[in-house]
Design a protein that fits this description.
The protein contains twelve helices and 18 strands. It is α/β, with parallel strands linked by helices. It folds into two domains: 159 residues, 3-Layer(aba) Sandwich (Rossmann fold); 180 residues, 3-Layer(aba) Sandwich (Rossmann fold), CATH 3.40.50. The strands form four sheets. A seven-stranded mixed sheet has the order 3-2-1-4-5-6-18. A seven-stranded mixed sheet has the order 11-10-9-12-13-15-14, with helices on both faces. A two-stranded antiparallel ribbon has the order 7-8. A hairpin with a 2-residue loop joins strand 16 and strand 17. Helix 6 packs across helix 7 and helix 6 runs antiparallel to helix 11. The longest helix is centred in the middle third of the chain and has 20 residues. The two termini are 17 Å apart. Bound molecules: nicotinamide-adenine-dinucleotide. Nicotinamide-adenine-dinucleotide binds next to helix 6 and helix 7.
């Protein structure tokens, strides 16, 4: 079977790194990639050629591969160019748009959506959402620091004492926890909010303060995900977020509820009263944002507060993000491909969850 890698149209990342070559060969796969697919991740065509990948045009990759991979979904007209029965692996986020499944069923291909891999210990090595979120959390802090006109650690100098930067994290999931760890390493004083009871211990183990809002809906049956909170809870939380935001210098907002619009936690009133020079990085921007002023994929300044709306910050770490994404894909392919043949065995829970459309 032939595996094909497409160049991303709007990302710097590439879905398979040259380092995957040995494992792909070991699975009995031949690999081809679109010209220049890895350029923006620092992997030039020569690195792929040296590792046994064939370099081809986009059309050849689309029409002659048995397994095709792209991070972002491609257009319908391009999906129509694929071989009948091909396996297409991408990220369709069907939990955000339930029309996706009906739409895909019209194509005679098998579709795996990597964002549907279960968040279980067994599937951890294939969890692209965690890999990308972790990098995004790290980059969010660096980006905030870049826009902030001050430094993170407390510093005592002959010219005076500089107080540490105060960082507030909204949502202590994968991205939020990495943001906490990064801000702590840089010397900031960090506090975090989350609705999940389990998050408290994780936040505290990283040396940050957990800010508790009483009355959260019990999430024990939600498989580790957050659940929708009541209007009353969210109003109480917004008031507490406002109180803490006015004392903060940097806010990293990551709060999301799978399949729903992100909760609004930072109101216009909060921003209007924050210290000028403060910076908000809203990683929940693509699902509506945690901040009232957030514009997805845009950086704006309101009353002196910089608001960066970006849910794809892992793309700014394109080399490491591509390597981790590639490792996740290889780990998934290893449960699917045996002796060069793909077997989408739905008795395997991971395959069953991720296979969102069948040929
Ligand atoms: P996510 O991106 O869906 O949400 C980010 C965080 O926002 C979550 O921690 C969520 O609880 C929080 N949140 C939601 N509403 C909020 C509100 N009103 N205020 C404050 N915070 C709010 O989450 P994620 O990072 O993808 O992680 C989801 C869960 O999956 C976590 O529990 C994580 O530990 C778990 N997980 C498990 C595994 C594994 O076991 N292999 C892997 C990855 C993630």
């Amino acid at each position: 079977m032939v595996l094909g890698i497409l160049k991303e149209q709007n990302f710097n990342r590439v879905s398979i790194a040259p380092s995957a070559s040995k494992k792909l060969t070991g699975m009995g796969l031949k690999s081809q990639m679109e010209t220049g697919a890895g350029n923006n991740a620092g992997f030039g065509d020569h690195l792929y050629s040296e590792n046994g990948f064939d370099i081809q045009s986009r059309d050849v990759v689309l029409s002659s591969s048995d397994i095709i991979i792209s991070i972002a979904p491609i257009s319908d007209s391009e999906m129509n160019k694929m071989k009948k029965g091909a396996l297409y692996i991408s990220m369709f986020a069907p939990y955000q748009n339930n029309e996706v499944l009906a739409h895909l069923s019209a194509f005679p291909i098998n579709v795996v959506s990597m964002d549907m891999i279960p968040r279980t210990t067994l599937a951890q090595s294939m969890d692209v959402l965690s890999s990308m979120a972790s990098l995004a959390g790290y980059k969010a802090v660096l980006k905030a620091g870049d826009h902030y006109n001050n430094m993170f650690p407390m510093m005592m100098t002959a010219a005076g004492t500089i107080p540490p930067t105060k960082v507030m994290i909204l949502g202590a999931g994968v991205a939020g926890l990495q943001a906490i760890a990064t801000a702590k390493r840089l010397g900031a004083v960090v506090e975090a909010f989350d609705t999940r009871a389990a998050a408290k211990e994780e936040v505290m183990s990283l040396g940050a303060t957990f800010v508790e809002v009483e009355g959260a809906v019990d999430d024990r049956g939600a498989g580790g995900y957050a659940v929708q909170q009541s209007d009353e809870y969210l109003a109480k939380q917004r008031a507490l977020v406002q109180e803490r935001a006015l004392k903060s210098n940097i806010v990293i907002a990551t709060a999301q509820v799978r399949g729903r619009k992100a909760p609004l936690l930072i109101t216009q009133e909060t921003i209007d009263n924050m210290k000028p020079g403060s910076v908000i990085v809203d990683l929940a921007a693509s699902t509506g944002g945690n901040c009232a002023y957030t514009e997805n994929n845009n950086t704006i300044v309101k009353k002196g507060v910089t608001i960066i709306g970006n849910s794809d910050l892992s793309d700014e770490l394109s080399s490491v993000a591509s390597t981790l994404f590639s490792n996740n894909i290889i780990n998934f392919l290893q449960i699917v491909v045996k002796d060069g043949v793909a077997n989408l065995n739905e008795e395997n829970e991971i395959i069953k969850s991720a296979l969102i459309s069948k040929a």
